[in-house]
Amino acid sequence: MSPFQLTRTLAENAAGAALRADVRHGLTRTPKELPPKWFYDARGSELFEEITRLPEYYPTRAEREIIVARASQVAAATGARTLVELGSGSSEKTRHLIDALLPDLAAYVPVDVSQSALEGAGRALLAERPGLLVHALVADFTGGLTLPDTPGPRLVAFLGGTIGNLPPAERREFLRAIRGMLAPGDALLLGTDLVKDEATLVAAYDDAAGVTAAFNKNVLAVIDRELGADAHPEDFDHVALWDREHEWIEMRLRARHPLTVKIPELNLVVPFGAGEELRTEISAKFRQDGVRAELAAAGLRLAHWWTDEAGRFALSLATA
Ligand code: AVJ
């Protein structure tokens, strides 16, 4: 058996159909809204990698610090033989986890919607870790997953704070779906960004170099390319704000003047008033009590809570 396998549970055209549905729904409602997953074409993924290196964007460095410090404790607590990573992207932080789980680790199962990201990361990893089975899944994991038949116990990792992109009701559903994938003795490793002072949070989503602004506007380029639309990035301003009631960051695109966006593939003309905003992302920030309660509501028990030295970000280990 080849040490690299790839299973696609996402139809080639599923992404296209989902984009059309999201754009039609999100741009014909008030207020206008698009889900953040459409940022991540090749250019958007590159811009996100650039964001993770910005001085203002602390979450990636903070989470890496925790993983490096705690990987051996994760290994001891879980004894995992299969590591499943949801939204694996470049798998960069996961390497530390994999190295701590070896030699018991039999399989690494990265799950992502991007086949190219999976192939690149999977092959790079294999070159360095011969003997490890990498079974990549091209899948949309938001509705739960059928996992390949690899040895337990399993550790499911969902890192980066990406769970914060889901509004509370979707988070509930998502955690329940993860719970449904776990057998007794399996565990979830969850990364969450933490509530902190507003200036630090806003700067992380509105950097001085304008990389996050370019990332935000990239969703317009995706719509233009995929749906033949005529949105112009220069007609919009990047907005990042802290919603203190919901304790989340919102990113928006604000029309600089009255304009229309034509979307021929949807037979749609979308008017924007001057200053009208399109919400493109929420990124929720958490507290320990909230994480514990959300896990418990899904039938998961918080077993470990680790933060970086500065207390900016948390890694939770939960058991089924
Ligand atoms: C990768 C989803 C965790 O919400 O902080 C970075 C994406 N958006 N800058 C986040 C993002 C703007 C990021 N996540």
From TrEMBL:
<feature type="binding site">
    <location>
        <position position="57"/>
    </location>
    <ligand>
        <name>L-histidine</name>
    </ligand>
</feature>
<dbReference type="InterPro" id="IPR032888">
    <property type="entry name" value="EgtD_Actinobacteria"/>
</dbReference>
<protein>
    <recommendedName>
        <fullName>Histidine N-alpha-methyltransferase</fullName>
        <ecNumber>2.1.1.44</ecNumber>
    </recommendedName>
</protein>
<feature type="binding site">
    <location>
        <position position="165"/>
    </location>
    <ligand>
        <name>L-histidine</name>
    </ligand>
</feature>
<dbReference type="GO" id="GO:0052706">
    <property type="term" value="F:L-histidine N(alpha)-methyltransferase activity"/>
</dbReference>
<comment type="function">
    <text>Catalyzes the SAM-dependent triple methylation of the alpha-amino group of histidine to form hercynine, a step in the biosynthesis pathway of ergothioneine.</text>
</comment>
<dbReference type="GO" id="GO:0005524">
    <property type="term" value="F:ATP binding"/>
</dbReference>
<feature type="binding site">
    <location>
        <begin position="281"/>
        <end position="283"/>
    </location>
    <ligand>
        <name>L-histidine</name>
    </ligand>
</feature>
<feature type="binding site">
    <location>
        <begin position="140"/>
        <end position="141"/>
    </location>
    <ligand>
        <name>S-adenosyl-L-methionine</name>
    </ligand>
</feature>
<dbReference type="InterPro" id="IPR029063">
    <property type="entry name" value="SAM-dependent_MTases_sf"/>
</dbReference>
<feature type="binding site">
    <location>
        <position position="93"/>
    </location>
    <ligand>
        <name>S-adenosyl-L-methionine</name>
    </ligand>
</feature>
<comment type="subunit">
    <text>Monomer.</text>
</comment>
<dbReference type="InterPro" id="IPR017804">
    <property type="entry name" value="MeTrfase_EgtD-like"/>
</dbReference>
<feature type="binding site">
    <location>
        <position position="87"/>
    </location>
    <ligand>
        <name>S-adenosyl-L-methionine</name>
    </ligand>
</feature>
<feature type="binding site">
    <location>
        <position position="112"/>
    </location>
    <ligand>
        <name>S-adenosyl-L-methionine</name>
    </ligand>
</feature>
<comment type="similarity">
    <text>Belongs to the methyltransferase superfamily. EgtD family.</text>
</comment>
<dbReference type="GO" id="GO:0052699">
    <property type="term" value="P:ergothioneine biosynthetic process"/>
</dbReference>
<dbReference type="InterPro" id="IPR051128">
    <property type="entry name" value="EgtD_Methyltrsf_superfamily"/>
</dbReference>
<dbReference type="InterPro" id="IPR035094">
    <property type="entry name" value="EgtD"/>
</dbReference>
<keyword id="KW-0808">Transferase</keyword>
<dbReference type="InterPro" id="IPR019257">
    <property type="entry name" value="MeTrfase_dom"/>
</dbReference>
<keyword id="KW-0489">Methyltransferase</keyword>
<keyword id="KW-0949">S-adenosyl-L-methionine</keyword>
<keyword id="KW-0547">Nucleotide-binding</keyword>
<feature type="domain" description="Histidine-specific methyltransferase SAM-dependent">
    <location>
        <begin position="20"/>
        <end position="319"/>
    </location>
</feature>
<dbReference type="Pfam" id="PF10017">
    <property type="entry name" value="Methyltransf_33"/>
</dbReference>
<keyword id="KW-0067">ATP-binding</keyword>
<dbReference type="GO" id="GO:0032259">
    <property type="term" value="P:methylation"/>
</dbReference>
<comment type="pathway">
    <text>Amino-acid biosynthesis; ergothioneine biosynthesis.</text>
</comment>
<dbReference type="GO" id="GO:0008276">
    <property type="term" value="F:protein methyltransferase activity"/>
</dbReference>
<feature type="binding site">
    <location>
        <position position="205"/>
    </location>
    <ligand>
        <name>L-histidine</name>
    </ligand>
</feature>
